[in-house]
Amino acid sequence: MPAPLEAQILEIAQNARAASLALATVPTDAKNAALHELARLLETHSDALLAANARDLAAATENGLTHAQIDRLTLTTDRLAKLAQSVREVAALPDPVGELLDETTRPNGLHLRRVRVPIGVIAIVYEARPNVTIDCAILCLKSGNAAILRGGKECFHTNTAFAALITRALATSGLPPAAAQLIPTTDRSALTHLLRLDALVHCIIPRGGESLIRFVSENSTIPVIKHYNGICFVTIDQAANLDMAEQIIVNAKTSRPGVCNAAEQLLVHRAIAETFLPRAAQALIKAANVELRCDPASAAILASANIPHTAATEADYRTEFLAQTLAIRIVDSLEDAIATINRDSSGHTETIVTADKAAAEKFLAAVDSAAVLWNASTRFSDGYEFGLGAEIGISTDRLHARGPMGLRELCTYKWIGTGTGQIRD
Amino acid sequence: MPAPLEAQILEIAQNARAASLALATVPTDAKNAALHELARLLETHSDALLAANARDLAAATENGLTHAQIDRLTLTTDRLAKLAQSVREVAALPDPVGELLDETTRPNGLHLRRVRVPIGVIAIVYEARPNVTIDCAILCLKSGNAAILRGGKECFHTNTAFAALITRALATSGLPPAAAQLIPTTDRSALTHLLRLDALVHCIIPRGGESLIRFVSENSTIPVIKHYNGICFVTIDQAANLDMAEQIIVNAKTSRPGVCNAAEQLLVHRAIAETFLPRAAQALIKAANVELRCDPASAAILASANIPHTAATEADYRTEFLAQTLAIRIVDSLEDAIATINRDSSGHTETIVTADKAAAEKFLAAVDSAAVLWNASTRFSDGYEFGLGAEIGISTDRLHARGPMGLRELCTYKWIGTGTGQIRD
């Protein structure tokens, strides 16, 4: 007989599977009605949500979380209003389910279509930030997937309050309440049980730190779409417009250093390093007092110009700083830059600044990352900026979805064949 | 210090990764030249291949393999000629690499394209049938992926001989020889080491029995695309043309019972069961002496008609017989059929026979399988019949590829953005 917790997780997964089969053929209007109802509930139940959040914040203070961590946990009336707005925006997006991907008629007359359908049951495992509960639930609902949500313990009361409103919005709109379920415990073994239910759960998306992602990836028999870190490179080619190059590295590094599409690594072609590096360094220091961690060649240039910098360690070249820190290297050639990126980057997003079209095309073809950009900031690499309308994360995996994941990437497809009695020889 | 075998597997993976980066931007002509050279070598080196195969066959006889197993292992001059022909057919297929999936220009002027690119390094783990070594190598090569091949011990000498020719064809054509490598040992721990190299290997495709697939899936930190079994259902609706229904169930069950798209399960609507079942049963017995395993309702009908049958067990309803055996159930309604399939099938391929368009459309929408067919045999569900030109297998997973996998399904995509100096607010 399974232990009570194991049985509870199994029941959640079974209910999710049943809900997903119903949800797969629900009309768009019914899904949108549930989303609008949820948006309304978020506004009309703000007192209850803020009270639940206050319990999490009290525990956070008691447990000595940092000011930044507590800020991320905190709900406000303003944040709730923005969250309700984001729910309405997802309702306004086109429904990906039922889209025709391609069709063909075979020589024997069999007519074949590939049609976008929901994946089925998606489990999302995340940490901190209570808005993730709503974000994931609404994106899964709109794409016709049943969601199993496993939030972090720091947000448990807030997540529980959100989940109650989601359940209510689903029920009010005539949709299966099990279409979005929060795991009602923060016990780690609940996660371990969940990760083995590959007959019922079709995909796991871990969103959080590297150790969470690694735990999920090593313990899951369910396919995982990993959202690892972004060690994003900006490459300044010898043929770069240096004004543009300066603006791009300053924007890529300093505009929001804590996100995965911020630049962490700068490669500068040797031919323009003496001209470019001092001005770029000064601009980075002026913009955000960026700490520059330099290889010996770039250090020598900055030293001659009396610009503050430190010596990079080997580890710095493969680090996601998530801070106003930048590792800098001089490269001898475009090929050197490409090889360096393909060895040291996390495959998230890289950009090259150059006026040389042939160099750019070589870079765009040879760099093996989810997003490769030419004369644009790495900061554009996200679902909203790429026009997906919404984003559940940025996949650093290659299978199924690569880079920003929107509603379409939460779907799979099926083959639909229509015949007139065809049999095979 | 890693053990020698572990170090050897690591080196194979590192060489594969380096080869994949080179292969990703190789022109189509160069890949096709290597394929044509391989086809030529298969023909000119048939003596060496048959000699290697003879060693495997001698061991197979000594180890008491069945006649059918030995037949599957056996190479002949004719089979080699067909293999060479299949290599030339893959050379003639369009190159999926570089295909434009979609493009858009954002309001800020950033031009975005999604372009098909190789996945990178693909490991394929398979059993028996030596032609799989060639099939997998050529499909990976054409799609720009480096392949790591791990064959079964029964074919070790044949696989080694094939691998030598593949290496030679690559080198002769100026491509990296590490683009396709056979693991040169059948030691099980080599596989265990390989399955942990997620930093170098991007995808594992296990092709073989359920225990192999489960072993890979449970031990791999690399994403797995599973090719599980096919428990395919044929549903005869109350509005079926009974002549067509009889032809389809006979074809789906008997034309090649050992393959995954053969029918294993028959559902018959109660309203036509008394008319349809006796004639279908007689046709199945006449065609291939099919053993009919019946639920009580279908058994009663066949008993009245004096048609041989046996009682089905619960397990029969979820069994891939891969033999001239069919489980039969009566269903009360279309909804009953859909629920039965979504509970008991393996999600591979299901078909409905009906003249009722509304019933068919409901079935096609609600049945949650990779391929759903209307008035056609389940036997059409493969890469050649679906027009993919070639097939590395049939995925029963939902992520990345669902159903038949051809060259496109061996690719991922990347985002390519072209700007004029865009920075983000």
TrEMBL record, chains A, B:
Boundaries of every Aldehyde dehydrogenase domain copy: 6-286
Indicate the principal place this protein occupies in or around the cell.
cytoplasm
What subcellular compartments does it reside in? Answer: Cytoplasm
Gene Ontology BP, a term: L-proline biosynthetic process
Q: In which pathway does it act?
A: Amino-acid biosynthesis; L-proline biosynthesis; L-glutamate 5-semialdehyde from L-glutamate: step 2/2
**What family classification does the UniProt entry report for this protein?**
Belongs to the gamma-glutamyl phosphate reductase family.
| UniProt name for this protein | Gamma-glutamyl phosphate reductase
Q: Which organism is it from?
A: Cephaloticoccus capnophilus
Q: Which gene encodes it?
A: proA
